[in-house]
Design a protein that fits this description.
There is one protein chain. The chain has 305 residues and is α/β, with parallel strands linked by helices. Helices cover 49% and strands 15% of the residues. The chain has a single domain, classed as Rossmann fold (3-Layer(aba) Sandwich). Strands 3-2-1-4-6-7-9 form a 7-stranded parallel β-sheet, with helices on both faces. It has a 3-stranded mixed β-sheet with strand order 8-5-10. Helix 1 links the parallel strand 1 and strand 2.
Length: 305
């Protein structure tokens, strides 16, 4: 069923990766879009492609989700002009990895500010509005008139991936927040979903900040190539997210290995530990001889994986 033109969605992190593909998927279904990203050039490209797909762009704004006042101002503006969105997909985030023994506090703080506090800012700005708004009269797949709040966590939010301590802290916080919101917001006509992508071949893969590791090192390049060979495309991840949300799933994964990993933590703990130890060894092998000797200063802003 093709949605009516009155159906709207708000997407952050829309300039690249999963956020961009979600925006384009919604555009192809005729959903009116409110888009934001910290990268204005990428956002412009998404807007142009969404318009080619036939979508109405209600708003497109360069936005830093760590700026609470800016998020509140933007949400107030778009909801006043276009009403409360039927769907919210908060995808904006960054990834910074590194050995917890050497990763500097400013990098811990940065990844938590963007991924966790950025989500808090979006939730604080939107939740009072989406819970107070009347339900839409038109029907979509799923329960009639209920709004959707979709937050982006990660497989690292619950799986002990090596060198992910800071990133996992930020994404685990999002997962825990969503677990509470799914019950807090249900009486107000809002369904909450949390996405835990596994390996997704976004631009982030090629630019990710791995503290103290030389990305040009052959071992690191080989490990990156193995990751990309296992990863799904952002378009496929977006399709799985939309399908999972339409089916009413709270936790949406983008590949079967992530769902199995979550199950194995409880039901096959010895197997889970063996795999995590092997991955940790692989990370140490890849970084051996590939240290930069100085802290890395770059950080990638894109859809998380």
């Amino acid at each position: 069923m093709r949605p009516t033109a009155t159906h709207s969605a708000l997407v952050t992190g829309a300039a690249s990766g999963i956020g961009r593909e979600l925006a384009l998927s919604l555009a192809r279904d005729g959903v009116a879009l409110m888009l934001a990203d910290v990268a204005p050039d990428g956002l412009e490209r998404t807007v142009a492609d969404a318009r080619l797909a036939g979508a109405e762009i209600l708003d497109a704004t360069a936005l830093d989700v760590t700026d609470q006042a800016a998020v509140e101002e933007w949400v107030e503006k778009v909801t006043a002009e276009h009403g409360v969105p039927d769907e919210v997909h908060h995808v904006a985030g960054i990834a910074i990895w590194g050995d917890a023994r050497t990763m500097p506090p400013e990098k811990w703080r940065r990844v938590i500010e963007v991924n966790l506090m950025g989500t808090v800012h979006v939730v604080q700005a939107l939740v009072p509005r989406i819970t107070a708004a009347p339900r839409r009269a038109h029907a979509r797949r799923g329960r009639r008139g209920r709004r959707k709040l979709v937050l982006m966590s990660s497989a690292a939010g619950f799986i002990g991936l090596p060198w992910h301590a800071a990133y996992s802290a930020s994404k685990g916080g999002v997962l825990a927040m969503a677990e509470v919101l799914r019950f807090d917001l249900r009486p107000f006509g809002v369904d909450v979903h949390v996405v835990a992508p596994g390996a997704v071949d976004t631009p982030l893969v090629r630019t990710i900040d791995i503290h103290g590791v030389d990305r040009a090192n052959p071992r690191v390049a080989r490990a990156t190539a193995l990751f990309q060979g296992h990863a799904v495309s952002p378009a496929k991840a977006a399709a799985k997210i939309r399908r999972g949300v339409a089916r009413g799933r709270f936790l949406v994964t983008t590949s079967g290995d992530i769902a199995f990993g979550r199950w194995a933590q409880v039901n096959l703990p010895w197997g889970y530990k063996a795999v995590m130890r092997a991955l940790n060894y692989g990370f140490r092998w890849a970084s051996r001889g590939g240290s930069t000797g100085t802290p890395s200063t770059s950080s990638a802003v894109a859809s998380p994986s």
